[in-house]
Amino acid sequence: MGLDRFDAWWSGLRYVRRSVVLRLLGTVLAFSCAITLILTAVQLFRDYQRGFEQIQNSLVDIDRSYRDSLGEALWRLDQRQLQLKLEGMLRLRDIRAAEVRELPPVNSSIVVSVGERERISGMTVAREFPIVYRVQDKIEQIGMLYVEATLANLYHDLTRTALVILVSQGANTFLVALFTFYILWRLLTRHLAAIARSVSDYDFHEPPSPFVLQRKPPREPDELDRVVSAFNAMAMRLHRAYLDEREATVEREARHMAEAANRAKGEFLANLSHELRTPLNGILGYAQILRRDSTLSLRQRDGVAVIQQSGEHLLALIDETLDFAKVEAGKLRIEICDVPLAGLVDTIREIIGVKAEQRKLAFECTVAADAPGGVRADEHRLRQVLLNLLSNAVKFTDEGSVRLFIGRAESGAARFEVHDTGIGIAAVYHEKIFMPFEQAGGAERRAGGTGLGLAISRQFVRAMGGEVKVESDVGRGSVFWFELPPALEEPRILHVTSGAAIITGYQGPRRKVLVIDDVQINRAVIVELLTRIGFDTVESASGADGIALAQTESPDLILTDIVMPGIDGLTVTRRFRAMPAFARTPIIAISASPCGVDGARSLEAGANAFISKPLDFDVLLARIAALLGIDWIREAVQPPAGPPMPATFPVNIPAEAMSELHQLARDGNMSGIVQWAERMAAIDPAHAAFAARLHQLARAWQSKAILQLVERYLEGNTAS
Question: Is the pTM of this model over 0.85?
């Protein structure tokens, strides 16, 4: 009998295995049952969590409700009252046992228990709560409350819920699965299988071929047709996306390489600039020392001035590279204040005038009558922007003129315009020239530049509240302009006396200065300056030697470099501050790094002041005077007076020579005027006074004064 039943069951199983439809039906049923079981388990788990949470909350509520009464009863050692309270807890749902224990535990401690604890683990939830009592405004723990709840009711409810869910969901799942299977197989499944085979064979690296269902086409496109159309469109998009991604990957790698190269370039320029400032410190240092020498002739003073101006120009280029590194790092610092335009224009006129003269260009600085007296800007950054724009204008102009115009915009802001008659810029490059390391023009014009000037200038102007814009056409020159807010208050113009004064000494006893620097030329520059004005100096080439030398020499002031081999300047400063003998000795830190980081670190280490290289002697002497409390002895130095204007013009200068001078004056060719004056003075000594006057006006870039002088001569000659 049993064997017959087994044979019948096995025969039915083999029949199901041979039928695809029945296998699918069995799969659907099994899957549905599994889903039902999973959902039931999830539901039961959630119900269990909620029930368990409720029991936990009940225990917490019991503690909250009985805390004060239990504490009062336990403090009074009222066991009857404790018994009543615990029995009241047992009347609550699921509570099986409760116990109160007095603390600290001793032989005579009170223990009150009710109910019976469950011996089977996992069937209960137990919690212990402290029983506290306030004694003289101080809360003390006097016992523990133990409460145990049973999970039997919860498990019973979960079992009943599981049976209801399984029976109802099982029947529903079977009916729905049977009907759904038939519909899907008849209308969809077999076609989806064909689509699946096509999808599995698809390779988006190759151009796709259209997929077509093997069936009689319906009168109207149905969902399967739309699926097939969507698949064909998707295959085409995937292939196109693959091609786009392949191109984007190539571009992305190229961009990353370019960005890495730019970062490396910026780091290299920043490191290189640090090394360049050390020899530049010696050049500018001795130039400042020589300019303080009253024994130099005018020609020698001019030569020293050229050296200093060239060094300062090189320093500006170095600062430009550092500014670019700061811009890339997002650490650009702008200090906005009221900047008077008068002094700013005079400085720019002097610097750009020399460059324009070298290229035989006319240069003009014009400030409109209605222009604001000052602007809200960072004076150093604004000067750098104007010098960059004007230097580019001179560089890319072969003939004609360069002009700086400052006026008032319609909004009331100060408008700065730089005009030139140079080669111009094509419209497609109007934005590109503001990119880092981008330069316009041919290779001969790009030489001598870094390609950072315009990029940094735009960042500076944006930080000051403006925007650099350009108007230009090829062959018709260019106009760069920007606007900045006017000054809040009209700046006062300081009238400078014609004379100057140099420091020759100081009042009071002689002071001793210790100079610590590993570079000999840096020590020599500082020692030379300080020795000339009466300081006793001692020098050291390392931090360790400097500390030892200070203990024997007891200097009144210490100047130390920051970056040195072995013990650096910061460590030297800290060690000096740790010594009682030098705890209050003024220390000035010096570094070739111009960034504020070294300054902040130096002051934090204990330095009284920080100065960046190349040294500005006026700044250094001001710091020394403030730290040592000394008064300088100054000697007035009057600049050599220019030759007086001759009472009468020379009468024997050839007319051709005067016409040549007139043309040079009209062209603004200061170099040609100087050569003309020297040639006339060599031909006839009687022309020396007139030639000297021309030479003086040319060096002061007084092109209008020279033109008026020559025209007065020509008019006088014509009248006679």
Answer: no
